[in-house]
Amino acid sequence: MIKLIAIDLDGTLLDGQKQISERNKQALKQAKAQGVKVVICTGRPLRAIEPILEELDLLDEGDYSITFNGGLVQKNDTGEVMERAGLQLADVHRLVDLAKMLDLPLDVLSQEHVIIFNTSENHQTIYPELSPLLLPEPAHTADLSEERLYNKAVVAYHQEYLDQQIQKIPDVFKETYEVIKTRENLLEFMPKGITKAYGISLLAQDLDILPEEVMCIGDEENDLPMIEYAGIGVAMANAIDRVKAIADVVTDSNEADGVAKAVEKYVLQ
């Protein structure tokens, strides 16, 4: 019996217009009414998904989200952080140096703030366009303190150039960090071992829910660990091939109510 559904947003719950279909909405509301925990699992901070949580009626006591790709487990109603993991200031310095070497823009997320570094004169970040609800904060590394929480680093730029530069990232960075593309124009760096599956596993332990009682639904590279972790791992029809290969189930696409169809079949009574 599924007790928790963890759902990715872009390419999964959201269609190409960043909207939630009525069928998806109703299926998730019915699941919540049955006592199933409906958990948004995203790379975004809580502030950026509040309109989605409101639309899905997921702002009550006992509603949770996994944010920053597993870096935070939070209560939706208060924002209280139940579990956390992030980068150290030394990591920020290393990643800023890497971005300069690759001639790429680099931003670091700190809760609802986007710290914007001038790491490339030729290529400016597009992250503020991707996450307009967050607060931009231009800064230099010398301005930062050890005590601040650094959730993750992101490179947001046009796909063709980004993909070209990704090939030049030294292997040592891939050994030290989770280096994953979460959208075609977005590359993210997280501490090694911090994934969506990590965040879901912590929440599941807090709620006394077993992995076999979890359904995870996603489409992209950063969804791989959680789909592998889940009792029922669901890939969207539009998912990348690696996600489909490890999933237990392939549902319809994000344009054809794929989330609702999986929830209706495996969760709703």
Automatic annotation (TrEMBL):
Known InterPro entries for this protein?
Cof, HAD-like_sf, HAD-SF_hydro_IIB, HAD_sf
Which CDD domains does its entry note? HAD_Pase (cd07516)
Which protein, by its recorded name, is this?
Haloacid dehalogenase
Q: Give the organism the record lists.
A: Candidatus Enterococcus willemsii
